[in-house]
Amino acid sequence: MARRNTLVLLLITVIFALTIWVVFPLRSSVELTYQGSFSANTTTEQKLIIVDQAITNMREHIEAQGIKNYDVVNLGGYSILVTLSDYRDIDRAEQVVGQISNFTVVDSTVQGEKLGRNLQLGIDLAGGVKLVYQVKLTDNTTTDQQAMMDRTILTIGKRIDRFGVTEPIIQQLGNDLIMVQLPGFTDIEAAKSLVEQAGYLEFREIEKNSSGTLVYLKDYLDSTTNNFFDIRDNTSRLFVNENTSDKNYGKLVAIISVNETGLVYTDVNGNPIDKETLRTYGDSPSWILARGDDGTPLTGALLSDAQPNINQSTNKPEVNIQWNDEGAVIFDQLAARLHNPSGASGAYSLEYALGIFLDNNLISAPQMVAEKYEG
User: Fold this and answer.
1) Which residues lie below 8 Å from residue 69, measured CB to CB, with a gap of 6+?
2) Which of 124, 140, 191, 253 is the most buried (most CB within 10 A)?
């Protein structure tokens, strides 16, 4: 009898649970991003008019399907975001919205999923910030514009990664939009500051000892002298991951500074670090500030212009830079000192490298191949 009562109770519980599920189902929202495409002779004013009319038509079509909880907004440029509070409305919405000419879906995101499957929680469930940016593109070729978009996404990703954000989502939407999702962020202003901050750009060369030999991290770890090898420069030495096959290539791994007691070893966050833990990066060179003859460091503040470009030989993105008057002088002074005497045909060597650093992370380290560049 007891077993029978247990089975009856279990059956009632299951029926009750199913009833609750049918009457009050879990409603996860869905976001659909539509990107406009236009003929070459469509003017900017005409495009904006088409976008406004498309938003009106989308709203009318969605309401005609009996969908009540939705939103349609302009993301900026020629992109439209459609948000449905109930993901079950997606088929009806896509059917009618898809009939609107000039616009196609470029992204769709379901926030959470029914049945509680083991998925990464979306912004709505885990809490977080979603930002959409429009990149101001120049009138270069499509290839140049895509290279600029790729570079911007890479820069944002590196900046966010430094702050340990868990599984951020950074992706391109259409031609000129970038979406950034930061799960776990609750302060939207802090998130915007993180993404929008101007990166600090500086240029570095590799430290040399008194005999002119390049200095590496292992030299410091093995040294009994509690001071820099080049005592003329008392600023911090940066050491980065030099493993080109590692996804973390170029990332800062250690900083050596000096105070009244001697050398101080710290990690990326400024915390003291045990010297022995750095043995893995022993072959990392010691990067010091690249300075002109009068001691002025070469930084991004001396740039007058920087434009994305595609190297016609390698087909890889690069940046063409133009210095102001002071920067041009310092750059040529560095070239005179660091250039490879064999020119562009010479074998690559760190001895001739000029490291380009953004927010203390190495972006690239091209070698100087000319004695003078003249701006």
Assistant:
1) 84, 85, 86
2) 191
List of residues 6+ apart from 138 with CB closer than 8 A = 144, 145, 148, 307
For 312, the token pair is 């016609």
**Residues 6 or more apart from 293 whose CB is under 8 A from it?**
333
Ranges under pLDDT 50 in the chain: 2-4, 6-27, 112-126, 141, 317
Contacts of 112 (CB under 8 A, 6+ apart): 26, 28, 29, 119, 121, 122, 124, 125
Grouping H, G, I as helix, E, B as strand and the rest as coil, residue 329 is helix
Are 80 and 34 in contact by the 8 Å Cβ rule? The answer is yes
pLDDT at 18: 37
pLDDT digits (tens, 9 = 90+) for 218-266: 999 999 889 999 999 999 999 999 888 887 888 899 999 998 889 999 9
Concatenated DSSP letters of 190-232: HHHHHHHSPP-EEEEEE-B-TTS-B-BHHHHHH----S-SSTT
CB-CB neighbours of 346 under 10 Å: 13
3-state secondary structure (DSSP) of residue 372:
coil
Q: What is the pLDDT of residues 6-64, one digit of tens each?
A: 444 444 443 333 333 333 344 456 777 777 777 767 787 788 888 888 888 888 888 88
Q: Which two tokens stand for residue 150?
A: 């790729």
Ordered DSSP codes for 48-72: HHHHHHHHHHHHHHHHHTT--SEEE
DSSP string, 263-320: EEEE-TTS-B--GGGGGGGTT-B-EEE-B-TTS-B-BGGGEEEEEEEE-TTT--EEEE
Please say whether the beta carbons of 303 and 323 come within 8 A.
yes
Per-residue model confidence (pLDDT) at position 112: 40
Q: What are phi and psi of 265, to 5 degrees?
A: -105, 125
**Distant-in-sequence, close-in-space partners of 19: CB < 8 Å, separation ≥ 6:** none
**Residue 32 CB partners (closer than 8 Å, separation 6+):** 81, 82, 83, 84, 90, 93, 94, 97, 105, 107, 108
Q: Is the dihedral of CA 75, 81, 83, 87 positive or negative?
A: negative
